[in-house]
Each structure stands twice: as structure tokens, then as C-alpha cells.
Amino acid sequence: MSIIRSYKHVNQMLTCHVEQETGLSAPDFIVLARLRRSSDPAVPLSALARELAFSSGGFTKLADRLQQAGLIQRQPSPCDRRVTNAVLTPAGQAAADRALAVYGAGLREVVLCRLGTDGLRAMVSQMSRLGDLPSGCLDEQLDRETTARSG
Q: Where are the domains of the chain?
């Protein structure tokens, strides 16, 4: 739980910093960053709402606000006329780039300040090891421990 609590705390600090520096609220920043990092420039609004755990009504209001600010455009999907995609405008790309730069700089500052260079290297090494785990690794480990205890 400590890892999750620490992640949430650092993320909240950084999104507040992004809001102070750019004027983007945390949800606005998350949507723009998601769109900017997407391999596809057009992302269905329903997929964004689902990924970000928004209700469809709540996400519609957020998308309305981003569109009114000139940061996204809504475009019909060329493949499915029932789907509406969100696409970053040039202003949205610039806002996302600025916010991601602020977030990244803040993250480097917070992590380096607390962990130092050696601590950061150790953390990256350990996180890389976790990233290499096969998806069922935890279940297999728990099964082995349960079998060992009962045997």
C-alpha cells in the first residue's frame, strides 16, 4: 500500500504543479496527455471516458470544455458513424507538450531530491525487473506458497 500511496501523493503534487503552471486541471491534463501520447491521433471519446473512469455524461462535459478552449476537436469516425473521436488541435498539442514538460521536470526534481542519483538508478532497476514479470507470475507464486503451506 505504501507504493500506491506514494504514487498517488507524488502524482497529485505534480498535477497541482501542472495546473499552477499551465492552468490545466488534472482531468484536462490527463486527457490531453493521453491524446498526445496516443499512436493514433483520433481516439474515441467512449474509450477515453472508459480509460479515465469517467461517466459518459461527466466526460462529455470535460470534452465540451476542452473543445470550447480550442484544445480538441470532435470528429466522426471514418470507420463507424456511431463513434465520435477526439483529436488534438495544434493549440491542444502545444498545451499537452507544455504540461508534459512541466510534469516531467517536476517528477525529476521530486525523485532526484528524495532519492538522489543512486536511489533513482536503484528504483529504475527494480521497476524494470517488475516490468519484465510475466502477467501470471503473482498467481503462480501465490499458488506455490499455498501448496507449500498445506503440504
A: 2-116
* CATH number of this structure's domain 2-116: 1.10.10.10
Left (φ > 0), alpha (ψ -120 to 50) or beta: where does 25 sit? beta
Write the DSSP string, 89-132: -HHHHHHHHHHHHHHHHHHHHHHHHHHHHHHHHHHHHHHHHHHT
In which band, very low, low, confident or very high, does the pLDDT at 128 lie, cut at 50, 70 and 90?
confident
**CA–CA gap between residue 92 and residue 66 (Å, rounded):** 9
pTM above 0.85, yes or no: no
